[in-house]
Design goal:
The longest helix has 11 residues. The protein is flat, with a radius of gyration of 24 Å. About 20% of the residues lie in helices and about 20% in strands. The chain has about 190 residues and is α+β, with helices and mostly antiparallel strands.
């Protein structure tokens, strides 16, 4: 049986923090809730055309996409690997008052891992207990939707999926006429 040496904890200096080239991180605010959805605004180069032998340059508006890089590409956010990332959704969940934090981990596996001294170098400084639904409560997004309740999670996803298309369409109506594609039976609104 071979024993592996305990690996040292990951050094923060090894974490890439540089902004992504040709783009910037932006946050789109919610309209219903106090939320911020991280997006990446990508600057496009000019379109170069030749009209009657003359070269013309036409600027292109930036394109916004959902940014999955998390806090690591935001130079304004302090990263401490031992503390972990901020708990973005915690207040969204607890503000609904239909969950409670467990007093202890209920999983044997979790408890074994937490008490394993060989894994101490990997552990965060704080480990929060999970939440569970209060008796008689259903805390799924499907349950809220079926009951006409809009949650911060729903608004977050709507903003993320929209990718600021509303603003782009308002700024340039010609976008409605490009790349019609196949709606697969869906009906797209013509104006917002």
């Amino acid at each position: 049986m071979t024993h592996h040496a305990v690996q040292p904890a990951v050094q923060e200096s090894l974490i890439t923090r540089a902004p992504l080239t040709g783009s910037r991180k932006v946050y789109v605010p919610g309209k219903l809730f106090n939320i911020q959805v991280a997006m990446r605004e990508i600057q496009l180069t000019e379109t170069v055309s030749f009209v009657n032998g003359a070269k013309t340059h036409t600027p292109n508006a930036s394109v916004t996409v959902y940014d999955t890089s998390g806090a690591y590409t935001d130079p304004e956010i302090e990263i401490d690997l031992k503390k972990g990332l901020p708990r973005l959704r915690e207040s969204w969940v607890t503000n609904r008052k239909d969950v409670e934090e467990l007093q202890a981990f209920s999983s044997d596996y979790s408890n074994e891992r937490l008490n394993d001294e060989k894994l101490k170098y990997l552990k965060f400084e704080h480990i929060r207990k999970p939440y569970k639904a209060l008796p008689g409560k259903n805390v799924t997004q499907l349950h809220y939707a079926r009951n006409g309740i809009i949650t911060p999670e729903m608004e977050y996803i709507a903003i993320r999926e929209n990718q600021r298309m509303e603003a782009a369409w308002k700024a340039d109506e010609s976008l409605w006429h490009q790349h019609a594609g196949d709606s697969q039976g869906g009906k797209m609104p013509k104006t917002f």
